[in-house]
Specification:
Chain A: It holds the Pfam family TBP. Chain A: One of its GO terms (molecular function) is DNA binding. Chain A: Belongs to the TBP family. The structure holds two protein chains of two kinds. Chain A is built from three helices and five strands. By secondary structure, chain A is an alpha+beta fold. Chain A has two domains: about 35 residues, no CATH class; about 90 residues, TATA-Binding Protein (2-Layer Sandwich), CATH 3.30.310.10. Chain A has a five-stranded antiparallel sheet with strand order 1-5-4-3-2, covered by helices on one side. Chain A starts with 8 loop residues before the first helix and ends in a 5-residue tail after the last helix. Among the domains of chain B are: about 90 residues, Cyclin-like (Cyclin A, domain 1, Orthogonal Bundle); about 100 residues, Cyclin A, domain 1. By secondary structure, chain B is mostly helical. In chain B, helix 2 runs antiparallel to helix 3 and helix 7 runs antiparallel to helix 8. In chain B, a hairpin with a 3-residue loop joins strand 1 and strand 2. Classes of the chains: A alpha+beta, B mainly alpha.
Chain lengths: ~130, ~290
Amino acid sequence: CKINCTGFEEEAKLGARRLARCLQKLGFKVRFSAFRVVNVLAVCSMPFAVHLVDFTKNNRPIASYEPELHPAATYRIKNLKATVQVFSTGSLTVTGMLLSHHHTHTHTHTPTFLAVLYLQLEGTQA
Amino acid sequence: CIIVYKIYNGTYQGDRVIDVGSEWRTFSNEKALKDPSRVGDAQNPLLNGGDLTTMISRGTGAASFDEFGNSKYQNRRTMSSSDRAMLNAFKEISTMADRINLPRNIVDRTNNLFKQVYEQKSLKGRANDAIASACLYIACRQEGVPRTFKEICAVSRISKKEIGRCFKLILKALETSVDLITTGDFMSRFCSNLGLPKQVQMAATFIARKAVELDLVPGRSPISVAAAAIYMASQASAEKKTQKEIGDIAGVADVTIRQSYRLIYPRAAELFPPDFKFDTPVDKLPQL
């Protein structure tokens, strides 16, 4: 049976173990196996506001913005299989699949995107 | 016009021309008892896969009914079975479009989109009605007269979330993108539904456009901004509308209108068009 756990890496593992322990106490035969990190989410905030309409127009078709559905513009990077959600306040949410080592992934994610976005957003700062 | 007779005997055998006489053309509107036209309406081969089957219509004489009163000759054994779902969807699209009085060009565009999506089969698992609703939404957008998701929801049985999901999937499948919605796209429709005069509509359009240009409403949906602009314009004119009425028409909650209104209120004086005749001056506008 599959368990999805969200949280910091060690705490998530602890939480999953705790849940497995509960199931064990209930009487099921439990074996804890194959714990892996599948999805990494990072949040960061830019010091400037973003004009989403111009941002989307300059970055078609990679960026998509549907104000009726979600207040953020979604920017999908294909080769890294990651999604960046850009809010008009300048906050970013970076979601990515795990490729190699999760530490380097989380850290290289954000600076690269900051560079990419800053170049593209130069003309669209509010 | 020539009638082509398709000989069908388990397999396709051949064509035979049987009548080279000229065709009757029906000009008048009145339905004569006998319509001498032998070919009927023009078909739509682009959409229907183009098969020329024979259909048995309901009999009129006594001979066509058997003992129990049922019609003796059954109709339509297996007419285009592979496209039956598609024809069903076209019918559904037509019904939906009819409910909101969409013109024929949008319906045709929707049918085309649906056909492309259906043939691609990448969205095969989704409900056909959901795909049809999403196609309708995309067609309206592409024709330059976008409808809000809520308006499409109102004529469809599918939830807004599902239509939104299908919308994104279709854009990805067909590799197209659509233009972003602006506040001006909805002004004429909302104002007409509220019964506001042309002056107020023009003022509201101007206010909304100015508000977006001055970036007074970052992150707000264009629908909410449009609704707030209509509220401000109507409150400044003789035809005052309440937030609830506007919210009803636009499909936004009245708290949302209140939020957007609070953002544009401080600079109301700059937002009105220069030649606007105020029934209520700017400083007397309601402050929420």
